[in-house]
Write a structure and sequence with these properties.
21% helix; Jelly Rolls; 4 helices; globular; six-stranded antiparallel sheet; alpha+beta
Length: 203
């Protein structure tokens, strides 16, 4: 009989993270997002990593689609950060999962990753200085040491990171609500521009 041994290894990661505040273009959208998420309630019944009120994973609605259009350029730009003279139009972001969540006092999210998708994102519809931060785990700092990177949420902030990055949200201690929209993105190439993509990376 062949004996199988399970080995668990804590993998350290180097992860680029991009976050930007979109208040100037999303200020009017935020109330629509909040109303929709609030009306949906806890559709997932806290059976996921998110221990807060959460909509279905593949929620489709007009406010989410409007948000997709706004953040699409930032997603493409993030993916091309390491490229020389990147052309974000080469990639066609596919928002294949989007959900909303409301964190109240005592709510949290367990540590997890979003593979096999390529990129993940979080947009904060409503947050305060007392809101629980986003934790990115196993990150290697400039000294080569492993640490948990904390990103305090701010209303209208967009955070983008590779889907394989372990992340979590600690327990919300504040009585104020923390409302967000999150999702996963794949980035298939535009076939008409694929040759341009390969030529760009050969330079």
């Amino acid at each position: 009989m062949i004996m199988v041994k399970n080995i668990f290894i804590n993998i350290q990661v180097v992860s680029n993270v991009h976050y930007v505040n979109l208040d100037t273009v999303t200020k009017d959208l935020n109330p629509k997002l909040e109303e929709f998420i609030r009306n949906k309630g806890d559709e997932m019944e806290r059976k996921t990593n998110v221990k807060a009120d959460m909509t279905h994973y593949q929620t489709v609605c007009e406010p989410f689609e409007e948000l997709h259009k706004i953040i699409m350029p930032y997603v493409g730009q993030f993916f091309c950060l390491q490229a020389k003279n990147p052309d974000t139009e080469i990639f066609l972001p596919e928002f294949f999962e989007t959900w909303g969540a409301i964190y109240r006092k005592g709510d949290y999210t367990d540590r997890h990753v979003h593979e096999p998708s390529k990129l993940s994102w979080i947009y904060y519809v409503k947050a305060s200085p007392q809101s629980a931060p986003l934790h990115l785990h196993q990150i290697i700092n400039e000294k080569g040491e492993r640490e948990t990177f904390q990103i305090p949420p701010k209303t209208s902030d967009l955070v983008i990171f590779p889907s394989w990055t372990p992340h979590s949200v600690p327990t919300q201690e504040s009585d104020e609500e923390r409302i967000c929209v999150a999702g996963n993105v794949n980035l298939p190439l535009d076939k008409d521009k694929s040759q341009k993509y390969y030529d760009m990376f050969k330079k």
